[in-house]
Specification:
rod-shaped; three-stranded antiparallel sheet; alpha/beta; six-stranded mixed sheet; 10 helices; 13 strands
Length: 331
């Protein structure tokens, strides 16, 4: 723990009273006198010799000490003393990431192998893998978008990764509608990135179907995203040999990634999906900025309070001394 002054130049004011005393002209005050015809007799009776000139008032030692201390403390207060805490270094992420997860009706299919090798629901496998991916993103800001017939922002950009994982885990198949709106999900991500002030902007989009209900073409949305500096990585997890909503459009996902300076991947099980997310992380290493600061606690009130206390104490003592002196003379 250490101390410093925010405005140390104020200490040059310490010499101000001496400069005034040394170079400023003395203060003069004229007072009226009483002239009496028997003035000489009075002085002779008192044993005094009359002299002409000014009367120079003298301060006692207490007044000088109190005034000096008060001035010193006032200057110290003007210098703004502060207590310095331990220096803190915070690592600030320079990357924002949007995770877009398809929760359409086809994600209820149980054709993806989990970590135990048994077939599981597609969405559950995705939630397990993406949850671990989010957990490892310590320091990043992540936004979560879920989409089906409509696209919704589950969480805006946040560093509270635990909340993102909880909200992802709480999603269920079909809660955003049974269809697939990939283009709308990309468009919503673009609007979400409008609040981002960092250069590295990534979107990871996972879907198991073909776009059937978007108001915006996925390809056009990807081109707009590229213009906004957003890179899109797409992951297909559905059946490319299926029909209708159950058929994943791998060509469209690949085209989206190519137009948005990203990459396309395809997974059939939990292990492959985990490898894809690890590969995305390797291709886009996290950029971090270290920001150091030292907390400061202002202590200006202490010298000011001490100056007021000394001034009041000196004034009270002078008043007490004057009263005691007058009582002694009266006696």
């Amino acid at each position: 723990m250490s101390y410093s002054f925010a405005f140390p130049y104020a200490f040059v004011l310490l010499v101000a009273p001496w400069l005034v005393w040394k170079f400023a002209p003395p203060w003069r005050d004229r007072t009226k006198g009483i002239r009496i015809p028997f003035f000489r007799q009075v002085t002779e009776a008192a044993g005094l010799e009359p002299q002409s000139g000014a009367v120079v008032l003298q301060r006692n030692r207490l007044q000088l000490i109190a005034a000096s201390l008060c001035w010193f403390l006032l200057v110290v207060g003007l210098a703004r003393p502060e207590q310095l805490g331990q220096q803190v270094t915070v690592e600030k992420a320079a990357r924002d990431m949007v995770l877009a997860v398809d929760i359409s009706g086809s994600m209820d299919a149980r054709d993806m192998k989990g970590t135990d090798g048994k077939p599981q629901q597609r969405l559950q496998v995705v939630k397990d893998v993406v949850g671990d991916f989010i957990k490892a993103r310590e320091g990043d800001r992540i936004a979560l978008i879920v989409f089906g017939t409509k696209a919704f922002v589950q969480t805006p950009f946040t560093e509270d990764l635990a909340s993102v994982r909880e909200l992802l885990e709480s999603t269920t198949v079909g809660m955003a509608g049974p269809n697939t709106a990939i283009g709308d999900a990309i468009g919503l991500a673009i609007r979400t990135f409008e609040t981002s002030e960092v250069d590295q902007r990534l979107m990871v989009l996972l879907s198991d179907g073909a776009d059937t209900s978007s108001r915006m073409s996925p390809v056009n949305a990807a081109e707009i995203a590229a213009q906004q500096g957003v890179s899109i990585f797409t992951i297909g997890v559905g059946d490319p040999d299926g029909a209708g909503e159950d058929k994943v459009d791998l060509k469209a996902l690949e085209d989206i990634a190519a137009r948005a300076n990203g990459a396309f991947y395809y997974a059939t099980d939990s292990e492959g999906l985990s490898e894809i997310y690890a590969e995305i992380d390797r291709q886009n290493p996290r950029i971090a900025e270290s920001v150091s600061f030292q907390p400061k606690q202002p202590l200006t009130w202490i010298p000011f309070a001490a100056a007021v206390a000394i001034a009041l104490g000196a004034l009270a003592w002078l008043q007490f001394s004057a009263k005691r002196g007058s009582r002694g003379e009266g006696a």
